[in-house]
Automatic annotation (TrEMBL):
<dbReference type="Pfam" id="PF01341">
    <property type="entry name" value="Glyco_hydro_6"/>
</dbReference>
<keyword id="KW-0326">Glycosidase</keyword>
<dbReference type="InterPro" id="IPR012291">
    <property type="entry name" value="CBM2_carb-bd_dom_sf"/>
</dbReference>
<feature type="signal peptide">
    <location>
        <begin position="1"/>
        <end position="41"/>
    </location>
</feature>
<keyword id="KW-0378">Hydrolase</keyword>
<feature type="compositionally biased region" description="Pro residues">
    <location>
        <begin position="330"/>
        <end position="360"/>
    </location>
</feature>
<keyword id="KW-0624">Polysaccharide degradation</keyword>
<dbReference type="InterPro" id="IPR036434">
    <property type="entry name" value="Beta_cellobiohydrolase_sf"/>
</dbReference>
<dbReference type="InterPro" id="IPR018366">
    <property type="entry name" value="CBM2_CS"/>
</dbReference>
<dbReference type="InterPro" id="IPR001919">
    <property type="entry name" value="CBD2"/>
</dbReference>
<keyword id="KW-0119">Carbohydrate metabolism</keyword>
<dbReference type="InterPro" id="IPR008965">
    <property type="entry name" value="CBM2/CBM3_carb-bd_dom_sf"/>
</dbReference>
<dbReference type="InterPro" id="IPR006311">
    <property type="entry name" value="TAT_signal"/>
</dbReference>
<feature type="region of interest" description="Disordered">
    <location>
        <begin position="324"/>
        <end position="364"/>
    </location>
</feature>
<keyword id="KW-0732">Signal</keyword>
<keyword id="KW-0136">Cellulose degradation</keyword>
<dbReference type="Pfam" id="PF00553">
    <property type="entry name" value="CBM_2"/>
</dbReference>
Length: 459
């Protein structure tokens, strides 16, 4: 798979007190008008695609002995995030998209793409760039659609393109809206699920946002996304989304859904730029199982650890930012229980963690240790640490026998295969090479009663 160029992520500015106040009033009315979603999810289902060739995965692979690596690996590199298409290149974008979406489809997972190539993007700010003009932009979008090949893909179309219009004239705003509407129809015809830019809950009002969405063709889209590269709480974004849906309904546009970026909204408020804030944390882990009929997905649109363009170059991966975001975060949530918890477990596991003896580590071999990190009625979450012996290894696998009634539902940080009652997890593309004494982690969710397995590690 070809390497994806680093994206230039949009930066979100201005926390408008008056706008936030108007949003709060509007959301109260919207809650009455729409009611709370009661479905287990929105219109989507399945497992999101975790690309093994991301900036964070490459950093983890190249830095096995860094003290930050285990934290970044288990909390960030293990999770699916959106692939950004931000370098305007008409000749290569179709093949890039086809390769990426093909890999996701082959894995039986749902890919997410963020298109970021609209002319005059970011109003010439830290993430300036994009297509030279709207005609070439439409050609770019058409090539992307060809790369999709009818395979279901979630597309976040042009962050900032509707929330940030201050640098455009009235005629330019109309032209941009028409271009987004055309792009939406083109991508929808290729099988994509398309969502348009709705800013966030502390920016433009819900009524204003709905008007911009309507003008940009949201009637033909699947809905809108909020909070990309921002830090507003999931509760605030959910309420804001209901206000926007209510305002769209007032315009005769119904049946739309919201997507919320939760990649950096788990910490305190502060300045918009994440490069200089150490109080930010990752929010909810990415999932299509939202528990809300109005919300199709919680996504990591902005990959955690990639800079905003203040202290570091926009889109560059910075391990200190990633480690800061991941500090204190629980292990990824589960999809093992029939009704999974809506937030990662914070209470002590009903089965106390156990640490069996490490398997032998002679020469270039490896050892593995296991802990039950959480358990619930009918399922549990396990975490395995793989450690290289006295020599470097280029790949590893860990096998164990499943106890009666156990089955594995999800694995991160490795690739699972099951043969009868024997489960084997092999390294992912980014964590197989270990220096002498270095370690890697993988985790899994299983149904059945928790039990301490006897692990066999092979290098």
């Amino acid at each position: 798979m070809p390497l994806s160029p680093p994206h230039q992520s949009p930066h979100r500015r201005r926390r408008l007190t008056l706008v936030a106040a108007s949003v709060a009033c509007a959301t109260a009315a919207a809650a009455v008008a729409l009611g709370a979603g009661t479905a287990s999810a929105g219109t989507l289902s399945g497992v999101l695609y975790r690309d093994p060739d991301t900036a964070v995965a490459r950093w983890v692979a190249a830095n096995p002995n860094d003290s930050r690596t285990p934290l970044i690996s288990s909390r960030i590199a293990s999770q699916p995030a959106s692939r950004w298409l931000s370098n305007f290149n008409l000749s290569t974008v179709q093949s890039e998209v086809s390769t990426y979406v093909g890999a996701a489809t082959g894995a039986g997972q749902v890919p997410v793409l963020t298109l970021y190539g609209i002319p005059n993007r970011d109003c010439g700010g830290a993430s300036a760039g994009g297509a030279p003009d709207l005609n070439q932009y439409q050609t770019w979008v058409t090539n992307i659609a060809r790369g999709l090949g009818g395979r279901t893909t979630l597309i976040m179309l042009e962050p900032d393109s509707l929330a940030l219009l201050t640098c455009l004239s009235a005629g330019e705003i109309t032209a941009r809206s028409q271009a987004l509407a055309t792009a939406t129809r083109t991508l929808k015809a290729a099988g994509a699920k398309v969502y348009l830019d709705a800013g966030h809950s502390a920016w433009n009002s819900a009524a204003d946002t709905a008007g911009r969405l309507a003008n940009a063709g949201v009637a033909d889209a699947d809905g809108f996304y909020t909070n990309v590269s921002n830090f507003q709480s999931t509760a605030n974004e959910t309420a804001f989304g209901r206000s926007v849906l209510s305002a769209l309904s007032g315009r005769g546009i119904n049946g739309k859904r919201q997507v919320i970026d939760t990649s950096r909204n788990g910490g305190a408020a502060g300045d918009w730029c994440g490069d200089d804030n150490t109080d930010r944390r990752i929010g909810r882990y990415p999932t299509l199982d939202t528990g809300d009929a109005n919300i199709d997905a919680f996504l990591w649109v902005k990959p955690p650890g990639e800079a905003d363009g203040c202290r570091y170059a926009a889109g560059s991966f910075q391990p200190d930012l990633a480690a800061s975001l991941a500090t204190g975060a629980p292990l990824p949530p589960t999809t093992g229980p029939t009704t999974p918890p809506t937030t990662p477990p914070t209470t002590p596991p009903t089965t106390p963690p156990t640490t069996p003896p490490t398997t032998p580590q002679p020469g270039g071999a490896c050892g593995a240790t296991y802990v039950t990190s959480s358990s619930w009625q009918g399922g549990f979450q396990g975490q395995v640490t793989v450690k290289a012996g006295g020599g470097a290894i280029s790949a590893w696998s860990v096998s164990w026998t499943l106890a009666s009634g156990q089955s594995i539902n999800q694995v991160w940080g490795g690739v699972l295969s099951v043969n009868g009652s024997t489960a084997t997890v092999r390294n992912a593309a980014w964590n197989g090479s270990l220096a002498p004494g270095a370690s890697a982690e993988f985790g899994f969710i299983a149904s059945g009663a928790a039990a301490t397995p006897t692990l066999t590690c092979t290098a």
